[in-house]
Amino acid sequence: MRRYQRRLEHSEERLRLSLWGSGDELWDWNIEEGTLYRSSSWQTPVELAPNTQDIPPNRQQIHPQDLDRVSDALSEHLAGKTPYFEATYRIQSSANEWVWVLDRGKVVSYNSQQQASRMTGTLKNIHHIKLAEERLQLFAQCLENISDAVVICDNNFRILEVNPAFSRITSKSRADVLHLPFELSLYPNRFLRDIRQKLVTTGTWSGEVEEQRSDGQTYYAELNFNVVRDERGEIQQYVAVFSDITERKNREKELSRLANSDTLTGLPNRALFLSQLSQLVKQQKRHSLLMFDLDNFKKINDSLGHQLGDGLLIKLTERLSLFPRSKGQLYRLGGDEFAILLENTNDIHTITSLAKELIKQINLPFFIHQHELVISCSIGIVLYPEDGQDPQSLLRNADTAMYHAKNEGGNRYLFFNDSMNKQAVKRLQIENLIRHGLKEDFFTVYYQPKMDIHSGKLLGMEALVRFITPKRGIISPATFIPVAEETGQIVEIGAVVLRKACQQVKAWIDQELFHGRVAVNLSAKQFMLPFLCEQIDDVLQQTELPSYHLELEITEGTVMQSPTMAIDTMKKLRARGIHLAMDDFGTGYSSLAYLKQFPLNTLKIDKAFVDDMGTARGRNMVDTIVTIAHNLSLTVVAEGVEVKQQLDMLKQLRCEVIQGYYYSKPLSADDFTQFLRQQKTQDTSSKVTALTSASSVN
């Protein structure tokens, strides 16, 4: 009996501890005797009368709003209508606070009349759970009723949930988008990748976007993205909230249109024109301005009336608006004065073609109010920055050129002055000559050796473009390269030089005449090409030239246009085994903070500094450049070395490599082949002499 009693006590203790650990309270209700037994109390105990005949027995502690619901559930179970009793309700604690509980119980015995005589169960404190549920319900109601769309995505940007406002704004149902990737159909995939990258780094992103509804209608939205992280800081979901701002954007557009449009023609007005022109000047973007007015328009107004004159301007606007090359660039400055802004071009061919077509279109007859009108125009043209450094100067000079065109009889175009006009014609001729030269393969490559300053041995060479025409002979690089850079033809010229240089160097390597590197210049436009690395890969693959035989020279001004982009491109080139040199160092505006980040191998000293070494200041400048290069572990090349005095100075200043007329001018491929053979013969002779001397000593 003692052993049985001990086991019973241990069992009761385990039950008590289990109930205490779970937070549940065990109750035993003897219905016939009217007693209620409680096994334990919560941390905040609920006080109940020990004897009661009430049903439910704790009705005095139950919240009045919950009492009927609890009584009905208990009565149904006591009547045998339900297999068990369960109810959630609020009960009053000893601190007079209402606490949510989950009450579960079951009849465990019946009397001889089959009436419930005993019932047991548990009482669980679920106050925190209930509050959390209420909060979640509140949030859910907010999401259901707010006017902003809400999208919840997983960490792969697939949609987990949307609210009704999403469907209202996008006209896409929940079923249409669930488990599909979040997308912005009017933007490239790169746009969303950038958003995700920003979210990973900062946790938030916001901006205005344009999107299409399922019916194709466009709308604007103000989009905000945030991340949801777990307790470890890992991203679990992305939450997007956006509102429809289409009406606001449309109002803004309408207000902008009214403020910046000409009331008669609907064209952009003078205010918008000046704003655009000022913006281009501020950004220092090359552009051209064509200003024109109608010849003898005053006579039309005076003889036929202002109403017909206004009708003529409207008809003229309609005609020119259909003219594709002036679309979006035509402005009415006032009266019969108009302007066309050509952004990002000073190309003479483009400008003159547009001016001629403009005159042709205006010369066509107009039929207005039974009148046939034939008119002409005078056009003045200015180029930025050649013809003015500010909007006022450009407008004044364009007006002057237009006035001179009118004085010469009208129905013509003129550049700002006669010298500019002649220069424009000359540039047009050079542009056409370059185009013809590229087509007929008139561009060739010359090579200038780079020599070790101490041993006098060949280390490499620089590839230099030459433009040789059958009729005009050699065209100076100073003549054609600026035009080629302006027109963009320099990209094609650069590709020709790279390909020919790689082919020739591979041939010299195969002949065992050369084992160094060839340096090829990259223009600014070439360096900015998004496919530059791939283009170089193709050339190296086609010519079978190993990448370590190629060195690319980039000017200081080129890399400083966009240092961050330049560093990225240069790293990609270095990863391919290609050497990089900064050309014309010291002539631009390099920041030392950026210079140390550029993955360079070589620094080239510009010829202007070498020429100036006769002065103390010039010599100190070269010494400074060499010191900077060596501190950055870069090789130094001095170009433009012509006399021995310069060579001796550069030796003293610890320069390693020289290039210039002291050793050789740029040579054609055939002449450079002879130069290489001479170098090889000299090397062989030097080795034989050295061996002979060594034998004599022995």
From TrEMBL:
Segments forming domain GGDEF: 285-418
Pfam families recorded: EAL, GGDEF, PAS_3, PAS_9
PROSITE patterns, per database record: EAL (PS50883), GGDEF (PS50887), PAC (PS50113), PAS (PS50112)
PAS domain location: 135-178
Domain of life according to the entry: Bacteria
Domain named PAC: residues: 205-257
Domain EAL: from-to ranges: 427-680
InterPro entries: Biofilm_reg_signaling, EAL_dom, EAL_sf, GGDEF_dom, Nucleotide_cyclase, PAC, PAS, PAS-assoc_C
NCBIfam families on file: GGDEF, sensory_box
Designated name of the protein: EAL domain-containing protein
Lineage, top ranks: Bacteria, Pseudomonadati, Pseudomonadota, Gammaproteobacteria, Alkalimonas
